Amino acid sequence: MPPSMTSTRMPPSLFPLPPQPEAPLPTAEKESAKKIKSIATTLNIAHRALYLGWHRDTPSTSHCPLEQRHRNSRILRHLDRTKQPPRRPSATMSSATGLPEPPPSQDRERDSDQNELEPLLGRPGDAQQPPGQFIAKNLVLGTGIIAQFGAVIFVAMIWAAVLTKDVILFSGHPLAQSLAIFTLTQSILSLQPTHTPDQKRVGQRVHAILNLLAFLFLVTGITIIEYNKFRQGPGSHFHSVHGYLGVIVSVILLLQYIIGFTMWATPKLYGGEDKAKSIWKYHRWSGYVVLVLLLVTVATAVDTPFNENVLKLKLWAVIITALMILVGIVPRVQKQKLGILSQT
Questions:
Q1: Hey, is 100 helix, strand or coil?
Q2: In angstroms, what CA-CA distances link 320 with 80, 143, 162, 273?
Q3: Do 8 and 64 contact (CB within 8 A), yes or no?
Q4: How far is CA 121 from the centre of its chain?
Q5: Which of 329, 316, 319 has its CA nearest to residue 289?
Q6: What is the pLDDT of residues 61-92, one digit of tens each?
């Protein structure tokens, strides 16, 4: 018989199967034995396929016995079925949490949102009101607690200096003005961290109410000083830096109130809500400037005769409390609300 017609001898198993144990195995060992048997079977099939691979590629396969050819075909078909196609990477890779990563456009939007919430000093979100948080917590959020300490000490210092002396009509002027500055500080702190539409809506209402209250305090203080000057005669006005600054700041503050209230209540005066919003940043800028001017005006009151003869407030104490208020407010200023955009 020609060599090509002789039956092909099957190669011995390269990986012999483990013998059957006489005693029953525990469940864990039984599972391990099954895995070992499965791996050995697969490796033996692969070994036989490599040994008989020439039957597929050479013409002599037509001279092999029919039974052997069928056996080889079954082995090769089994290997073809067990081959796993290479996995293509998905369009969006899963993150460590199992959630798909956002597309680059969403990453850019998220970075933009973070930049919009970036305070003047600090990282994005440091001066941001968390969702669902009561607005009163904005008063002590971040560096706001420093401003609160400064404002409380500021008011307590002035009130203690006034109430420990003989109270006269003029005593109402520093009392009312100190309350006005304290209330304005609260109105700024309450609105600064808002960033969602709902938060801004609530913050604007609180801001407006506190500003109205501060306005009443300021009007009370100005009325008292003007009445006192009227009693003293026409020549009693404008004898100090404090007097000049008081008049200038009062005019600026009145314009600030009018513009701020009309932008919020009647945006049609500015051509619609969108156009009114476009000038909000100028309202914010002027608001911070007015706060600084008010604190400077209080500091100049130290040189007035009433303070030198009656209250005896110290300039260093006024400056320290004023700086505490500014140190608590300025770092929380959100850049985009002032038109300052971060470069990314």
A1: strand
A2: 83, 16, 19, 40
A3: yes
A4: 13
A5: 329
A6: 444 555 566 666 666 666 555 555 545 544 44
